[in-house]
Design a protein that fits this description.
10 strands, globular, two-stranded antiparallel ribbon, eight-stranded mixed beta sheet
Length: 319
């Protein structure tokens, strides 16, 4: 187990974002300072409410939710209704938020938090389009040298899902992704090549069901909808649960194998816009600040997720 990591989770919940929140809250290896939300899987209003509802389900509505960018830097809004439904979290009954959203704006919260902490203290984890991170780096460039690491669920070095070569989070706002990838901070890309290994199988659901909690049933309801959506839209028998892989990597890097490789985002190709290009032609240069996730220890990953749901469920029972 690695040292505890202090993070801001920039997200667009989203079924797999919800699981990432559960893992971050239920594992002692993570200190979650707050959630920032970004338009992605659904509109900003919907994903922000989803973030609040997931925190209520986890018994952690003390975690602040800061709404961020509602649209990409240059492109029109595009959502993933076919995967996540009209609400962004279809398949379950969402509890009403118990606390209002926090101020300031999500981008300003990122800037203020990083600038107010010791250099190297804060890790930024992004599981949606990278609009907020790009705006934060432009608003206050000094955060780049102060951030410990940026961990992105997005892209892929051999796989796409929204197009033949582009993953949804990168496709939605490729200009923002290009800014984030081009900055000098260390960046780990947890892309589809890795996250397609994180399948929520019936065995995983059985283990969660054995917990016997409302949060466990919430997870199972999310996965039931997610499974059907992935079967109909992408031909998966079991749904890949992308976003918590970023958090698992921070909890225990041994669970997610990585390889250094320079990365760029394609902005202009007629058929390749939004593609993340990893250069594997030779050993990466010594000053390479990028790495890509390659292989997942599936059993260890799902043990983490199941245990986090168990921990949150027990804590909720004690309240």
């Amino acid at each position: 187990m690695a040292e505890q990591r202090t993070i801001i989770l920039d997200c667009d919940p989203g079924h797999d974002d919800a699981v990432a929140i559960m893992l971050a809250l239920g594992n002692p290896g993570i200190e979650l300072l707050g959630l920032t939300t970004v338009g992605g899987n659904q509109t900003l209003e919907k994903v922000t409410r989803n973030a609040q509802s997931v925190l209520v389900m986890c018994g952690r509505d003390d975690v602040p939710v800061h709404p961020g960018a509602s649209r990409p830097l240059l492109r029109p809004v595009e959502v993933a209704e076919g995967i996540h439904g009209d609400s962004g979290l279809d398949g379950v009954e969402l509890p009403e938020p118990t606390r209002p959203v926090a101020s300031p704006h999500g981008v300003q919260f990122i800037v203020d938090t990083v600038m107010g902490a010791e250099p190297g203290a804060i890790t930024l984890v992004a599981t949606g389009p990278l609009t907020n991170l790009a705006l934060a780096a432009r608003l206050e460039p000094r955060i780049v040298e102060r951030v410990r690491e940026v961990v992105v669920m997005g892209g892929g070095y051999h796989e796409g899902n929204w197009t033949a070569v582009a993953e949804f989070n990168i496709w939605v706002d490729p200009e923002a992704a290009s800014i984030v990838f081009d900055e000098e901070w260390p960046l780990t890309m947890v892309g589809l090549d890795l996250t397609h290994q994180a399948l929520a199988t019936e065995e995983v659901e059985r283990q969660v069901a054995e917990i016997g909690s409302d949060l466990g049933e919430f997870f199972i309801g999310l996965m039931a909808f997610f499974r059907q959506a992935y079967r109909e839209n992408q031909g998966f028998d079991d749904p890949p649960v992308h976003d918590p892989c970023t958090v698992a990597y921070l909890i225990d890097p041994a669970v997610v194998a990585t390889r250094k490789a320079p990365l760029v985002v394609e902005l202009h190709g007629e058929h390749t816009k939004g593609m993340t290009v990893a250069d594997f032609r030779a050993p990466a240069p010594d000053d390479c600040r990028h790495q890509v996730a390659t292989e997942l220890d599936r059993d260890a990953f799902w043990r983490m997720v199941v245990e986090s749901i168990r921990v949150l469920s027990v804590a909720d029972e004690r309240r």
